[in-house]
Amino acid sequence: MSEPSRDPSVFQEPHMRPAGKPTSLAGKSPDERRPDESQIDLLSASGQGVHEEPDIFPNRSPDVLRQDWSCSQCGYNLRGLEAGHPCPECGHRELYRPAPPGSASYAGWLAGKLAGGSPRVGWLTALTLALAGGPLAILAALFKSGQSGVAGLSTLILAVVFGPAAEEALKIALAWCVVEVKPYLFRRAGQIRLATVGAAFLFAVIENFIYLNIYVPNPSLSLVVWRWTVCVALHTGCTLLAANGLIRVWRRTVTELRPPELSSGLPELAWAIIIHGFYNLVAIFFEFAAR
Ligand SMILES: [Zn+2]
Question: How far, in Å, from the CA of 245 to the mean position of ligand 1?
Answer without folding.
Answer: 17
